[in-house]
């Protein structure tokens, strides 16, 4: 019977006949024996192939081929403390399916080389671990929203207006006209709360990020939600529940992968709701007390976020930012209109912002005033303005960068490791 490697690494299979399929991870010849470590999507196992036990042509071919050759091995499982995963298959039949010679990725290749060969590097055990964590995070996110009564929906990717400001828009030719790739699905989600009330989407967002940081991609997966009748605090509660849920699911399902990546689990295990809330002005004082060079009114850059959050051991919500440093749609605080009712969630350990969210302006006059202040033409946003004319309601939303989250949870050094094919200012291949 054909098994996945991880299924058979247990005592009940000892001396049983098993077949596995996978790729050669390591290979070593010792006299009449060839030791092959085979990997599949689940784990690795050592196989020992003795010359006289298998077809001679197959033995010769096995001796020649290199790592990443695909292979089928049939044999008896034995316990072996010296083998990398504690068991060994004593082969009596092998079949080389797709040979591989001179696999380009060897030890100590540069980061640039690995990125150019990402199509091959995705096979590494490290990338495999990250991709599994990513799978769990995406699955758990859908579970969370559905459980919470949010409907899944989708906005378009070709758009004509900016959500986050013009400087990071990608322009694309569109049948003799201009269109842009969307920076966020927020405005479309806002239209959909009038039919579904609570909506979410998981979709790409595109941003022409010109600065090189460890936290910006030009194409990233964005989980966004919007809910009618929600105020800032209501949404922060859903978000902290979501973050704790996602972490729990990853700890349940992917502990082995986290350990493989040498992630410090203690910090993740200690994360509980409610998260601390800090006003922007408090954060600025906190930053100044920790020798970060920042003044009231400054936006947090990547470096400041790193320095500030190195002092955190759990996520912190930052609220009440000055109105000038947030996009026009944020609702001014009725108690102090110089600040807006927003929230960014900063991940600890130097990771920084993973969520941006807040209450949206729902009164027509206020929205038109804010657009005028920012020099925006309401006609360009006619449909967004319409929402405030026909039965407007208070509402709040947020956006979570999926790669930012995975970057933090997996304890990665750069966001580009959190996605199979990263797109950055310098990279659109493979
Ligand atoms: P930053 O200040 O880090 O550039 P932002 O304020 O532009 O973030 P938002 O517009 O609030 O971000 O977007 C919502 C979320 O999307 C962010 O909290 C972050 O998790 C994620 N995000 C934003 N830009 C990027 C990017 N270039 N690459 C990956 N994720 C991003
Ligand atoms: Mg940005």
Number of domains: 2
Mean model confidence by pLDDT:
97
| Ligand list | adenosine-5'-triphosphate, magnesium ion
Compute the separation of the termini in Å. 37 Å
Determine Rg (CA atoms, Å).
Answer: 26 Å
Lateral arrangement of strands in the main beta sheet: 7-11-12-19-18-17-14-13
The low-pLDDT segments are none
Shape: elongated
**Helicity level:** 25-40%
Helix count, DSSP H or I runs of 4 or more residues: 14
Indicate the structural class. alpha+beta
What attributes does this structure have?
binds magnesium ion; 8-stranded mixed β-sheet; 19 strands; 5-stranded mixed β-barrel; BirA Bifunctional Protein, domain 2; binds adenosine-5'-triphosphate; alpha+beta; OB fold (Dihydrolipoamide Acetyltransferase, E2P)
Could you explain how this protein is built, in words?
- There is one protein chain.
- With 430 residues, the protein is an alpha+beta fold.
- It folds into 2 domains: 2-98, OB fold (Dihydrolipoamide Acetyltransferase, E2P), CATH 2.40.50; 115-418, Bira Bifunctional Protein, Domain 2 (BirA Bifunctional Protein, domain 2), CATH 3.30.930.10.
- Helix content is 30%, strand content 28%.
- It is built from 14 helices and 19 strands.
- The protein has helices spanning 5-8, 56-64, 111-116, 118-121, 125-147, 186-196, 232-253, 255-260, 265-269, 280-289, 302-309, 364-373, 382-386, 402-409; strands spanning 2-3, 17-30, 33-39, 44-50, 70-79, 87-98, 151-152, 158-159, 170-174, 177-181, 198-206, 219-228, 276-279, 316-319, 332-333, 336-340, 342-347, 352-359, 395-401.
- An 8-stranded mixed β-sheet has the order 7-11-12-19-18-17-14-13, sandwiched between helices. A 5-stranded mixed beta barrel has the order 2-3-4-6-5. A 3-stranded antiparallel β-sheet has the order 8-10-9, with no helix packed on it.
- A hairpin with a 2-residue loop joins strand 2 and strand 3 (33-39).
- Helix 5 crosses helix 7.
- It is elongated and about 85 Å long.
- The protein starts with a strand and ends in a 21-residue tail after the last helix.
- The model has no long low-confidence stretch (mean pLDDT 97).
- Bound molecules: adenosine-5'-triphosphate and magnesium ion.
- Adenosine-5'-triphosphate binds at residues 164, 207, 209, 215-217, 220, 222, 353-356, 399-401, 403-404.
